[in-house]
């Protein structure tokens, strides 16, 4: 397909800005500059006439009308809008596994991954450059991983492991017990540490040789692999994503976790009759991140429409969007769904952020991706207009500095 | 593929050791091992400020007979602290001005379906985390697990599956509150309809036990049970009088535990019965063994009212029951609109229930839980006193559920479960404008969608107008004594 209106530089032999009217694929060199009409940086707003300097797959510099050093190849897209690659922070695409409802924090979504599955390429075409994959099952099914949506081996795809620990709460005794038992693993390990400590202290007391006494070092017992992710949770190394369906589940979760403190986000599927507005103030006061689908839902028992994501945001929640259906089709509709929420009052920047940077936060990679900032991966989407506009085309998807999808790809 | 977690386990332990500050920060708060935790919690409780709220100027129908015109109710931490006139209101207390409105105790519904505290209009899918397509077996078994959730009671009191599935945001609960119900019986437990949390919502779940008196053999078995229990109690008394000699303690073998608990006054005995003969048998059993039976149904109670009255029965009935008399019978039979009135005159306590225990926006209008106050109105039509009819949906059902020390009337020390209405609660045209549960507004007609369009009340509007006026004239809001009456030194007069 041709896009004659797009002006881009294809020949890198010539230095400086190139004004070649070609729609051929673009092969990017190691170091190059991208000059676009508009950049949605997410982290610091919208920059007109933005120049993005990219080296070794990472963004080196971003700014408005930055002077480009002589000799650096530059690709000009004067009408294009660029935004960071989308982050599907909670997905089971390309995973093949089944599990019951149990406490298996030691399991990982990595066990289920089929590297190079076709579906990854499909969502990459739609602008999803990063996926946070989570393991199958209920209760505490295990930890997630973060992957690139390109690569034929596990190593090529893997970005981070573990990213977060999945948990599910619902308003019934068995679900609450499972979470409680998960935290009992922590209590048990702490008891073991206390016992060992006691033994160690006694041993130190018995030792008469002063020199030896000073050399004695307490080694806590090595936690078993089941307890380890739970321990990481309470020490703040890992965050949890807790799935719930309705407002009451949140109250029951608070009943279970009580005084325990750890970082966690909420994943909730917003459906008609969804009632999270009842606890929006509590979630907002805690600054809770809500991983939700961008859908307009109905007030329980009525036909009155509610923009729950907007309400949650205005209450103080952070928002990360995942498609209503975790499928290629779902990702295809994702931008349009967000556009609907924006039309119904959600702040546009919040909507874009929920597709990118907040998703990166969910998988613990906000320092690596999710916005157009120096030091981050050059995962960029090039559009011929506003990304939320229905008629806008995605021209190219850049992953680690290379155009890998869209008409600009090889 | 080797998992990264297990590889890092040793490293984690080392990191734990290397970060003592993190360790110290985590241990007491997150893991609850340090003894300081409990101390800290106590401190928090001390520092927690009392919450005061004044429901001011309404006509207070206390539910115990008294009506206090233009009286105020002072609520402290969800309980009724004081009722009367010119109350001293502490600084910072909230206020709802309900002058011109009536204030009633919250209604109590017997025999509600479990939907009230758990249901959603949308279909429930407890297995949402499991994909039925990829996991058909697991999906099926997860339903079975749900059914196996049996109630458990722990040492802290009532903690059971009832509380673990309680949903304060259930639309059914909104509907129940909209019709004045602030507490209900559900699956044998007494629930408070709280909308702001799940703490303390189960008020009692061990209130009564059912006995069967229908049919000759069942009657004989029940009688034998009570006879055995009575004999055991007599033997125990004798044994105790003899100084509790060793080896001679009466055995509980073969003694019916439930009968024994009833005779020890630990548990109420409930009987489901409608026909004259069964009701007579219940009345005589209760008189013989000296306990007060709870009789559910009681359609032909009006025929044997004297006997039931002598037994001091608590009768739970539906005043709109319809059944014809048997023309071939020598005795009177069938239902009577006067049932409640006659039974009450004979000395029974009357609780009114609805014909249908369900609750819905699409049910048969006027027959489900949403019509509780209307049912009591039918009892009045049959001659029951209005005051007694109010008690039949407040205080008496509270007694039936063993929660009358907490709810059922407006009295100092009880839970502040209050209804604010414009007219008589038993009148069919009256709608609940506000419902307070534990001193907090749990239902506001103007704000919920169900009845907002019908006769909107002016209470909230007045409040908002007051707030607006105050913000325009900031000086008014800040008297030295924290209220807005302009009297700066009244707080000095009080202790």
Which whole number gives the mean pLDDT of chain B?
79
Mean pLDDT of chain A: 89
| Cα end-to-end separation of chain A | 13 Å
- What proportion strand of chain A? 25-35%
Low-confidence stretches of chain A: 1-22
Total helical elements of chain B: 18
Taken from the alpha-carbon principal axes, the silhouette of chain A is: globular
Helix content of chain A: 25-40%
The strands making up the biggest β-sheet of chain A line up spatially as 3-2-1-4-19-20-21
Looking at how many chains there are and whether they match, the oligomeric state comes to heterodimer
Number of helices of chain A: 11
Descriptive report:
The complex is a heterodimer of chains A (410) and B (495). Chain A is an alpha/beta fold and 410 residues long. Chain A has 2 domains: 1-85 and 371-410, Urease, subunit C, domain 1 (Roll); 86-177 and 223-369, Alpha-Beta Barrel (TIM Barrel), CATH 3.20.20. Helices cover 28% and strands 26% of the residues of chain A. Chain A has 11 helices and 21 strands. Chain A has helices spanning 118-125, 154-157, 173-206, 210-215, 227-235, 247-257, 280-285, 308-315, 328-343, 348-355, 357-362; strands spanning 31-40, 46-55, 58-64, 74-84, 86-91, 101-103, 128-133, 138-140, 142-143, 145-148, 158-160, 164-168, 239-244, 264-268, 289-292, 297-298, 305-306, 318-321, 380-383, 394-399, 402-406. In chain A, strands 3-2-1-4-19-20-21 form a 7-stranded mixed beta sheet, covered by helices on one side. In chain A, strands 9-12-13-14-15-18 form a 6-stranded mixed beta sheet. A 4-stranded mixed beta sheet of chain A has the order 5-7-10-11. In chain A, α3 (173-206) packs parallel to α6. The radius of gyration of chain A is 24 Å and the shape is globular. Chain A starts with 30 loop residues before the first strand and ends with a strand. Chain B has 495 residues and is α/β, with parallel strands linked by helices. Among the domains of chain B are: 109-204, no CATH class; 208-400, no CATH class. Helices cover 34% and strands 18% of the residues of chain B. Chain B contains 18 helices and 17 strands. In chain B, β7 (181-186) and β8 (189-192) form a beta hairpin. The longest helix of chain B has 26 residues, at 216-241. Classes of the chains: A alpha/beta (410), B alpha/beta (495).
């Amino acid at each position: 397909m041709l896009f004659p209106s797009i002006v881009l530089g294809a020949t890198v032999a010539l230095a400086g800005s190139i004004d070649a009217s070609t729609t051929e694929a673009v092969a990017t060199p190691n170091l190059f500059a991208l000059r676009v009409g508009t950049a949605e940086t997410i982290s610091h707003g919208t920059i007109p006439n933005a120049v993005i300097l990219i080296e070794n797959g990472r963004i080196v510099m971003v700014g408005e009308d930055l002077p480009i050093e002589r000799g650096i190849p530059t690709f000009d897209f004067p009408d294009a809008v660029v935004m960071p690659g989308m982050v599907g922070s909670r997905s089971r695409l390309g995973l093949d596994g089944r599990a019951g409802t149990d406490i298996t924090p030691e399991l990982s979504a990595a066990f289920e991954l089929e590297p190079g599955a076709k579906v990854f390429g499909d969502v990459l075409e739609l602008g999803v450059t990063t996926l946070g994959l989570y393991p199958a099952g209920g209760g505490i099914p295990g930890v997630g991983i973060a992957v690139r949506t390109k690569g034929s081996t596990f190593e090529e795809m893997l970005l981070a492991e573990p990213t977060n620990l999945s948990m599910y709460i619902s308003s019934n005794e068995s679900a609450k017990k499972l979470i409680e038992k998960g935290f009992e693993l922590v209590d048990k390990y702490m008891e073991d540490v206390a016992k060992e400590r006691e033994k160690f202290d006694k041993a130190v007391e018995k030792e008469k040789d002063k020199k030896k006494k000073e050399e004695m070092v307490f080694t806590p017992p090595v936690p078993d692999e089941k307890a380890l992710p739970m321990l990481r949770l309470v020490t703040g190394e890992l965050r949890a994503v807790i799935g719930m369906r309705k407002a009451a589940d949140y109250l029951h979760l608070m009943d279970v976790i009580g005084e325990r403190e750890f970082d966690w986000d909420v994943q909730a599927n917003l459906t008609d009759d969804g009632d999270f507005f009842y606890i929006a103030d509590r979630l907002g006061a805690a600054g809770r991140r809500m991983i939700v689908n961008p859908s307009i839902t109905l007030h329980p028992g009525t036909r009155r429409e509610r923009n729950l994501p907007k309400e949650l945001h205005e209450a103080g929640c952070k928002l990360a969007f995942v498609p209503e259906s975790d499928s290629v089709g779902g990702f295809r509709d994702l931008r349009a769904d967000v556009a609907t929420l924006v039309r119904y009052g959600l702040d546009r920047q919040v909507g874009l952020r929920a597709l990118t940077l907040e998703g990166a936060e969910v998988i613990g990679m906000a320092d690596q991706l999710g916005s157009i900032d120096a030091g981050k991966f050059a995962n960029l989407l090039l559009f011929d207009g506003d990304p939320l506009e229905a008629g806008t085309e995605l021209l190219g998807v850049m992953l680690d500095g290379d155009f890998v999808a869209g008409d600009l790809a090889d | 593929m080797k998992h990264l977690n297990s590889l890092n386990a040793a490293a984690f332990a080392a990191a734990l050791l290397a970060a003592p500050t993190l360790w110290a920060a985590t241990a007491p708060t997150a893991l609850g091992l340090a003894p300081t935790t409990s101390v800290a919690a106590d401190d928090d409780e001390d520092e927690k400020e009392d919450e005061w709220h004044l429901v001011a100027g309404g006509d207070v129908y206390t539910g115990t007979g008294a009506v206090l015109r233009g009286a105020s109710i002072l609520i402290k931490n969800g309980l009724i602290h004081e009722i009367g006139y010119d109350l001293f209101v502490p600084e910072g207390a909230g206020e709802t001005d309900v002058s011109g409105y009536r204030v009633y105790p919250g209604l109590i519904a017997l025999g509600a379906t479990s939907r009230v505290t758990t249901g959603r209009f949308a279909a429930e899918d407890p297995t949402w985390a499991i994909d039925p397509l990829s996991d058909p077996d697991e999906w099926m078994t997860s339903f079975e697990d749900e059914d196996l959730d049996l109630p458990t009671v722990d040492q802290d009191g009532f903690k059971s599956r009832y509380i673990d599935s309680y949903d304060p945001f259930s639309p059914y609960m909104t509907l129940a509150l909209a019709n004045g119900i602030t507490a209900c019986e559900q699956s044998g437990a007494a629930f408070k309809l709280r909308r702001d949390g799940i703490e303390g919502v189960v008020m009692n779940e061990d209130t009564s036990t059912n006995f069967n008196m229908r049919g000759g053999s069942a009657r004989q078995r029940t009688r034998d049970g009570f006879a055995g229990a009575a004999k055991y109690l007599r033997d125990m008394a004798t044994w105790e009088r003899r100084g509790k000699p060793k080896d001679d303690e009466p055995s509980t073998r073969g003694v019916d535990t439930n009968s024994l608990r009833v005779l020890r006054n630990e548990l109420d005995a409930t009987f489901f019965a409608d026909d004259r003969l069964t009701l007579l048998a219940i009345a005589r059993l209760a008189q013989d063994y000296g306990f007060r039976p709870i009789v559910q149904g009681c359609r032909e109670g009006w025929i044997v009212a004297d006997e039931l009255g002598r037994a001091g029965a608590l009768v739970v009935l539906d005043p709109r029951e319809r059944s014809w008399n048997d023309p071939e019978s020598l005795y009177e039979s069938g239902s009577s609109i006067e049932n409640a009135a006659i039974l009450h005159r004979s000395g029974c306590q009357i609780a009114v229930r609805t014909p249908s225990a369900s609750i819905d926006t699409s049910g048969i209008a006027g027959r489900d839980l949403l019509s509780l106050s209307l049912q009591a109105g039918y009892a009045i039509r049959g001659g029951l006193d209005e005051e007694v009819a109010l008690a039949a949906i407040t205080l008496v059902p509270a007694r039936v559920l063993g929660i009358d020390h907490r709810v059922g009337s407006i009295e100092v020390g009880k839970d502040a479960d209050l209804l604010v209405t414009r007219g008589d609660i038993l009148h069919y045209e009256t709608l609940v404008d506000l419902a307070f549960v534990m001193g907090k507004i749990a239902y506001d007609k103007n704000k919920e969608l169900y009845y907002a369009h019908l006769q909107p009340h002016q209470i909230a509007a007045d409040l908002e107008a007051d707030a607006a006026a105050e913000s325009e004239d900031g000086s008014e809001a800040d008297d030295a004594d924290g209220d807005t009456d302009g009297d700066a030194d009244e707080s000095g007069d009080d202790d």
